[in-house]
Amino acid sequence: MTTPLLIILIGFLIFLGHYLAQFFQRTRVPDVVGLLLIGMLLGPVFHLIDPASFGKAGRVFTNLVLVFILFESGLEVRFEQLRSALRGTMSLTTFNFIVTTLVVAALAQWLTDLDFLSSLILGTILGGTSSAVVTTLARQARILPQTATTLVMESAFSDIYTLAIPISLISFYSGATFNVASLLGQLLSSLVVAVLVGVGCGYLWLLLLNRVPTLLKTRFSTPAFAFILYGFIELMQFSGPIAVLFFSITLGNLPLLRRGWLSAILPARAVELTEVEKDFFAEIVFLLRTFFFVYVGMSVVLDNFYLIALGTGMAVLLFLVRIPVVMAAAERNTPQFDMAMMSIMIPKGLGAAVLATLPAQRGLPGGEIIQTITFAVIVATTVLCTGLFFLLEKRHILGFYQLFFRSPRPIDAEAAPALSKRGN
User: Fold this and answer.
1) Which of 225, 245, 347, 369 has a beta carbon 3.0–4.6 Å from 385's, enabling a disulfide?
2) Over the stretch 305-314, which tens digit does the pLDDT of each residue have?
3) What are the Cα distances from residue 63, in Å, to 31, 66, 238, 361?
4) What is the DSSP string of 143-162?
5) Domains of the chain
């Protein structure tokens, strides 16, 4: 595709993204599906654009999208929501990762030529959820604030598992050393360091905004600091997404911080992000996520229909086993509709796609099988998640989930005013 045509296409995609967003507001049909289909037509179907031609720029772009989405989402999270969602988040993240890993590994061991360790690597790669998809849908769903916070935090926290464990297993397969104690220490330190640095940098940035007035003259200074934070934490081999999320949560809770004991270290007239700045960030996120989902569609690999069908079957089964995971992790007073929404929020993202390329790059047996199945699961879970989201928003399939999530749980947020009030 020539440069002028590519520029025309970019403009067309921006208009298309706005149209699909408005279409979603009228019909509740998620715009993600349309963007994925456009990407698939441009990539694997008509071969107009080859994602490989983007090289490392493609991976940089996906990380850029992730930073912006987590940053903008964290600004809306309040400490009350965070406190009520934290316990459920850790349970949900851990249970979902373990169950997903075991189910995928068992199916791969049974239905493919992968050995046990390769099957386990595949399972751990698919053990998380996509922050871009989950955050987009969770913010549009009619659920309690703490439920949305739990889903956003799960998608960020799951990166700790899906980065550290697969890479450790791949290194072990390649002949490097592997130690369970060091792995557990790495997981814990990645979480703790990322949270502490994210919160600390939030306070630091609030102080800098008050002492360096020139920083207030550009709307990009705060996102730029978030980029630096993300890159620095990733270089330290900790969790960049967690750090950015807690950095933005700190910025979004400035009024509450002034009333607490930390008010002593904050200026009396600390600068807050204005609504204009938040709207600007929201527009940037909208543009980036539009191109992100098109890029996901272009990245689909359609070279082995048996493995694609297997990956699709795995995706369907993962949606079913997610139901008992949610039952085990959710609070007793979580509304049935919220639990149903939690049950469908398991799309896989480009992080899994990047990890899936590592076994083949390092010459592991079955590397191509792992990559093809992973891409199939990514597309299938994303399409199924958005499709089920539409049906659930229309209450068409709520009755199915009510078979599992029965009373005395309230039906939805409107039937649980006390709980909803505590989350605001």
Assistant:
1) 347
2) 999 999 999 9
3) 21, 5, 15, 21
4) S-HHHHHHHHHHHHHHHHHH
5) 27-423 (1.20.1530.20)
